[in-house]
Amino acid sequence: MGEEKDSQNDTVFKQLSEAVANNPDDPSVQFNLGLFLWNRSGIESKQKAAEHFVIAAKLNPQDANAFRYLGHYYSKVSIDTQRALKCYQRALALSPQDSESGESLCDLLDKEGKESLEVAVCREASGKSPRAFWAFRRLGFLQVHQKKWSEAVQSLQQAIRGYPTSADLWEALGLAYQRLSMFTAAIKSYGRAIELEDSRVFSLVESGYVFMMIGSHRKGVELFQQALQISPENLAAHFGLGCALLELSKECISLGAFRWGASVLEEASKVAKAGTNLGKDISCMWKLHGDIQLTYAKCFPWMDENPALQTDKNALSASIKSWKNTCFSAALSAKHSYQQSLHLTPWQANIYTDIAITIDAINSFKEAEKRDLIQGELPEKMIIGGLLLESCNNEFWVALGCLSHHVELKQHAFIRSLQLDVSLAAAWAYLGQLYRKQGEKTLAQQAFDRARSIDPSLALPWAGMSADMSIRALKPDEAYDCCLRAAQILPLPEFQMGLAKLALLSGQLSLSEVFGPIRQALYHAPQYPEAHNLLGLVCEARCDYLSAIASFRLARCAINISSSDAEKLLDISINLARTFCKADKAKEAVQECEELKKKGVLDWEGLHIYALSSWTLGKKDQALSVVRILAARVKSLEPNLASASISFICRMLYYISGRESVTTSILKMPRSLFESSKVSFVVSAIHILDQSNQLEAVVSSSRSSLLSHDEITGMHFLITLSKLVKHSSKDCLGIQNGVYHLRKVLHKYPNSYLLRNLLGYLLVSSNEHKDTHLSTRCFTVRCSTALCPKEEGLKSSPEILGASVVACYTTGSSNHKYSFPTCEDQSPHQHGSLKLLQKWYHQEPWNKNARYMLILNYMQKAREERYPQHLCIGLERLTGLALSDESRPYERFQLLLCASETNLQRGNLIGCINHANNALKISVSDGYLFFAHLLLCRAYAAEHNRPRLLEEYTRCLNLKVDYHIGLICLKYIESWYGLDETNGNIVELKFEECSKDIKYSWNVWMALLKLVQGLIAVSNRDFVAAEDLFAQACSLNHNESCLYMCHGAICMELARQQCNSDYLMLGTGSLKKARDTCVAPLPILQLLLAQAEASLGYKDQWERYLQLEWSTWPPEMRPSEIFFQMHLLLGPLDDGMQSSSRTKHHQKNPLRWILQAIHLNPSCSRYWKALQHCN
């Protein structure tokens, strides 16, 4: 092979030599021979090649290739740098895109240190040709080296067009973007470099730092880990990973995930430790390790997962000691790392501050008796060491003030920092804290106010403001808001415990914004019994009694470990007993109370719990004896406590001995004991149940103690209940009496949510016709359900509103454009009840009442829209979900009826029957069971199963029902399927019977019955009987336009059949009354009037009513009869009909009107006959 190649080379050489000999003046031949010789090895060949290049350049001075190879010869063979530079410059001048010449020229200039000339060459080449990509690349790298980032971006972007797969260019561009703080662009550039070469460690590391800068610490961790997999000993990657994990842990800690944050810090500590082993002389790596360990010492949480801690004092003490030792070890490790960092860089003043803070943390984890005085002064000395290096650093002065134990030095340090920067909010805040400890309340208040005005995001001024609530005359709610702001900004245990105390004062213990902080406080201050006690109170307020019991037990163990304060121990024991009582653990509550009784410390609250728990266990005699002990102590109690005790005594006497006994006891008590709002409420409640009114005088005198708005409205609430009970009949409460009282009271207290809510509830419960619609006016339904006050024993306003919408029997179209409402009180769509219920259920997805009311309102919406498929599918899902949970019998019954109705409307008769039969198995009253049997009647009718239909119909008749709408539905079924042949008028008798108790709207229901009977008569073609029934309905209810319209229509039909003008006059009168009483234009009404007037010969009235009917309908909804009437109206085109009053749409050809009518209703023979007459 070698010999063959040599022979080929010799042949080529001979051919090129002959060409040169034949054409010595041809520069291309000279260049080709020179290029052949240049590619051969040996200095002699390259010298000969240079001779031919020189000849070629002389023959063709514009040949850049010849000058390029001459430059290579002078730079690599003869080593004549100046000539090489000139040759390369000549080559570039001829061809600026020649990257080989340009790179070689720049390399020579770089070796000689002529960087400015190198930049000039690149600029010149790039200026001459936009495709000189080598120049842009070289210039971009040089500008990056010179830190000219903006210029570098432009050059590198241009270079990337020529070298799009160059990872170096993308990496350099990413660095330039990073230095310009264009982080998104930098991430994309680094990412492209990594895509091209996944081993680019620099890009991975710098991308990680960029992601950290934009707060995406998790992504930064991934990139640093990827870099370490490629280069395990890369210090920058170790440092970046440690920093990213540290920031990620802080993010977890800010979210309250302390255990997660601690585990992340453990991993960060391992990474930083590995970094210190690789770079033992790198100060920043040791400082990072110190930062991680100090953060770990501050965030490591104490956990109370062991149940033995609640009862074993030694176990709790060992757990707290183990937690402290872990934190102490981490802080000690941080101190050693900071000391090593300071040893390497003793000029770094901030490390002195870090060491001081770490020593202070170490001292805080030591037991009080083990603390060394000299060790306690070390933080001050370290801070002073930092100040010797940077005496004008105001933050160091603030740190000195915080860590010093000398009051004078503290004050001096804070004032000195303010001299350096008077707007330093932290210095003002700590100065205010110092003044407050010294008792200088005014100065403290001024300092806190100054700090808060400078920096509202500082926590300490807000905490100081809440602590000075008595001096500032703040309300508990305002102080709570201030402390909440402080705890959210800086979650210190002291702030969090203060927040819980203020929540207790302001009645906001059950809020999540209190539970979270107090739980966090326990993670970092388990040695404080107060933290456990406050957590127990919060859990109790949230009705989590088991957790509250565990917290109170831990509090008792903690106080036995620390101080054994008898007063605090008593409070905790009372709290524990009370929680036992609320958690239905009366036996444990009694045991706690008996322990306190043995010690002789059972106070008034303990006696309350003791008596109630004993009564719960069925020990009435014991409970009665405790009540007597409490009664004997009443006179020695403070007025508020005495009133609470009297109220409790009255309630317990009622539970133990009954109403007569407690009434007798109340009458024997001095009247002065009842001068309290609490007692007044209890006595009034007992008075409600006393039909003999023995306590009338006591109740009247006690009401003079009611002063606040809430107390007065609450008493009116009880008075309303009294009206309901005392004016009740055998079967129902006196609802109208209660409604009348509330209407009077609401004139005086119109903004009382309690009274308005009760009025709405009573109106929904009323049998009167319009009360259901009036109930919707009692609430502001568009407010958030979370803002509505919570009142025990009441339905919320969304529930009552939803019930009022469901209780409305009127139907209409959901599209208001085609809706013709007949009920003047109908307004469910206007109130947005469905949206409110959806919002309520979204806010409280666990609330079964919200879901139940939402299902009922969706059912109402589906009924109004004639059960569209999408609503039926949604209802099936919601009812299926609700039926899978446990619920009260009545609610479950209603849900089964909804499911049955939905299946019936969708044609699933088997599902309908099954759900209805399941509803019949539930124990509810006959009035409710009636509707399940009614549904079965409809299902069997759809199945054409007459025997079962007759069976269910008979069961409906045998049940006692008080609901008119149910009887009306039954009457329709009876008529449609011929079931009234054997039962006569039983339904009518039941209807009249259930209307007896209705005082104000019985005539409305009776008119409705006559209407139904009339419609049935119409379906039976008995128009005379129908006219009589419609006339009776009109006489019973003069305000219902539909009744008059039905009567007018039937009279017109009778007039047509009998050719009797009397019926025509009677019908015209009824139709005019319907027009005058309707709340909105009724369809066909004007058309009927037009026909009646035309029959009487009044053509002008005929035309006027047709115009009104025409405008009543939307264009796409107009019925065919209107067009036919227009045809009749315009048929005889005489002079009298060509009046100027006709509108433009009346000017059509009569033929076109009849054709339009036939198009809309081709089955009407009258229209075809009219068309024949036209032809």
From TrEMBL:
Repeat as UniProt keyword: yes
Keywords: Repeat, TPR repeat
InterPro entries: Rhodanese-like_dom, Ski3/TTC37, TPR-like_helical_dom_sf, TPR_rpt
TPR repeat segments: 167-200, 201-234, 425-458
Biological processes annotated in GO: RNA catabolic process
SUPFAM superfamilies, per the entry: HCP-like, TPR-like
Domain Rhodanese: 101-158
CC per GO annotation: Ski complex
Lineage: superkingdom: Eukaryota
Name this protein carries in UniProt: Rhodanese domain-containing protein
